[in-house]
Amino acid sequence: MSDSLDSSPCSPKDTASLTEWLDYMQQIHVSAIDMGLSRVLPVAEALGVVQSAKDDAYVFTVAGTNGKGSTTAVIAQMCQTAGYKTALYQSPHLRVFNERVRINGEMVSDQTLIDAFGKVETARLKCGLTLSFFEMTTLAALLIFSEADCDVWVLEIGLGGRLDVVNIIDPDIAVITNIGIDHVDWLGDNVEDIGAEKAGILRDDISLIYGAEEMPNSVQQAINQHQAKCYQVGQDFSYRVIDETTWQYSNAALTMQLPRPALSLTNTANALSAVFTSSLTIDTHAIEQALQAVRLAGRFDYRESHHRHWLFDVAHNEQGVEFLLTQLLPLWQQHLAQQATDDNFSQKNQTKRKPASIKMLFSMLADKDIEKVVQRLTEVGLPISEWFIAEIDYPRAASTEHLKGILLNHVDSAKIHKFERLQAATYAVIDASQPQDLIVVCGSFHTIGEALVALDVDGLR
Length: 461
Fold this sequence. Notes:
Blueprint: H1 18-25, H2 40-47, H3 49-56, E1 58-63, H4 68-81, E2 86-89, E3 101-103, E4 106-107, H5 110-127, H6 133-147, E5 152-156, E6 173-176, H7 184-187, H8 191-198, E7 207-210, H9 217-226, E8 229-232, E9 237-241, E10 246-251, E11 255-259, H10 265-277, H11 284-293, E12 301-305, E13 308-312, H12 318-348, E14 358-362, H13 370-379, E15 384-391, H14 400-407, E16 416-421, H15 422-432, E17 438-442, H16 445-455
Parallel strand pairs: 1-5, 1-6, 2-5, 6-7, 7-8, 13-17, 14-15, 14-17, 15-16
Antiparallel strand pairs: 2-3, 3-4, 9-10, 10-11, 12-13
Helix pairs in contact: 2-5, 2-6, 3-6, 4-10, 4-11, 5-6, 8-9, 12-13, 15-16
């Protein structure tokens, strides 16, 4: 691959919009994903973001196959609530790019992003290098955090760890949420190779929060190599549900009863462990407030819209779907109980409704293991009465015919309804469903984002 700038399009003009900048940055590099730090480091150093993070900020870096978004959201909310000026970087976004870059919970403005993109572009050209879209935008986010003089940076790794652009920043605390099979074209097709990539965020003498009970040997080897201190769920900390509103967190030093957040307890426990392991001062009151306030769109995200019940979840691999199902099955029972109460009321008023069912609004990227995802969704006994599928508007999207072909291995053809675009599928599932049904939307960040756009509802929770 060549790093030549000869064929690059001209930089946007000073009056360019955010959309024009984003379009431009998708064109200037030969590939959308180009892992490695050799090109990005000189530009980062020219911008001063590496030194700024080292000298002025406390940094949490979160890697893992699933749960990174929820974990970073909880860490950031706790730090912000405790009074620290907190930067949060996540990817991808659901509706608008600004979702990726937040300070104290607020998305930065279009103009702030445009100004940062201009500075990154100037530094890139001076260095004589090309950068991918993700490298350009990540550097811009880091520059924004540096110029805003944020106390805490909470950074989500985009892909892997070792070679991800976020890894140019040395973390004070590292988190690996879990390790599963995903992104095999870039990370490998086994947990040992993937674990080695994700453990690349470790530094000497660092503390690592490891959020799964199974640990690949490659991760343990990295811990030993860096003489890192590892805190692992099931060994050094644990959690359990007490009731619908309360849960318990425990480590070697304390046991706490806390309000249940809207996000996963698994990821919340990892985030809490990261905060406790840090040198930051965050008291119990701030933690409780943060857990009651934290939200993240598309992560087991239950809503009511257009007189329908919706559940949005970005699950896009086997491990993510497994996690979705552990929460969906209890939710479905609660949903049925509520519908029974409503039915009793309806019967008193001499009306009768059809039994509640689940409608699935579904699409995935072609490079994911669609077969395994569909298999898990169909084998657990959920009453999925119909599937509404369409190709999402993304270069790596699975075609509708490909989706249907896989579904036919598990679902009767009469239950499958295909559409050219997800917007049409979204409208169709509304028309085909009843108010007592539950519509589950899953398969990709892009699936959730397009559905939210079609519904014209807020994706920025």
